[in-house]
Amino acid sequence: MANDEKRLWSSRLSFMRTKRVIFTLGATHILRPKTDTSDDSQQPIDVNTTADGIMTAPGDWKPNNSSRISEGTPLRIMSLGASLVRGEFSTGDVGFRKTMRDELVDLGVVVNMVGSQRFGDMLDNDLEAYGGNRVSQIHDHATHIVPQLQPNLFLIQVGTNNVLQNRDVDKAGAHMEDFISYLLRASPRSTVIFSTCLTNTVPNCEPMILDVNRQYRDLIKKFASKPVLLAEMHPSEGFPGRPQSIDIGPDGTHPTDYGYSLMGRIFTKSIQEADRKGYLQWPVENGLEKDGDEGRAEETTASSELPPTTSTTTKTNPTQAATTTKG
User: Fold this and answer.
1) Per-residue model confidence as pLDDT tens digits over 8-64
2) How far apart are CA 80 and CA 194, in angstroms?
3) CB 296 within 8 A of CB 121
4) pTM of the model
5) Which fold would CATH assign to domain 62-297+306-324?
6) Are 78 and 146 in contact (CB under 8 A)?
7) How far apart are the first and last CA of the chain?
8) Which listed residue, of 174, 180, 255, 284, carries a Cα 20 to 30 Å from 81's Cα?
9) CB–CB of 33/212 below 8 Å?
């Protein structure tokens, strides 16, 4: 009988110890309650995000031949997209590009904006942007000029036309992934900064804008150990200095001058973050000027002929490109 009582107390003591261990482990989050994993919105966001709303995949990776702006690394920047990148409806058609370029120059950066077109009332106004383009269309255009110019920095702002045209909205993220992957292959020393879409006041468009932006935020997770950043442009995420609906013009899509200037500042901060992370690399030496303003004072600031608005078949003639890009 005494042995039975000892076994009973031993069993109770073992049970109490087990409860104590379970409680301790639970309190330190080693044991966690089961959660429903079917809702992705409940899962932790596995990205690095700065206070300025600039996102990168996790980790401290940087290329072996990383080169810092403080070391004199020049930026050969190609801006890719549609009418928002062109700066349409802004004063002088400079959009975000002039604000961003001026800020970079003030920081001591040597800048050359490159592309097959010239647009906007600024000397260094080269770009690769076509009004009405969706993600897949600007990807197609890029294949005809990127191998020649070899930018070391791409800025992408595209996706709104997928929404406005209601074309491939559900594929915007996949198309952007293909686009970015192509740019990294075609210009191996490049860093890519792409952005979410701006808020849109065209009736019934904002829900689709939010959908595209969710796809882009999910996409950045796929670029671990790659020089890719996502710049948050939409106010829904609560970051300061984002264009609000009041900063969008009467057509519901294109920003006011102030809205464009906010975009420029966001891109500047994104470039600074790319530099801080060591993503930037010295551009390929291919005969292009390091400073895009060099020798341009007497030139026209516009291309003599612009491509069709939504063409997907326009090919850049290398000879023609040589006359519209700085060499």
Assistant:
1) 444 444 444 444 433 333 332 323 333 344 444 444 458 999 999 999 999 888 999
2) 9
3) no
4) 0.80
5) Rossmann fold (3.40.50)
6) yes
7) 100
8) 284
9) no
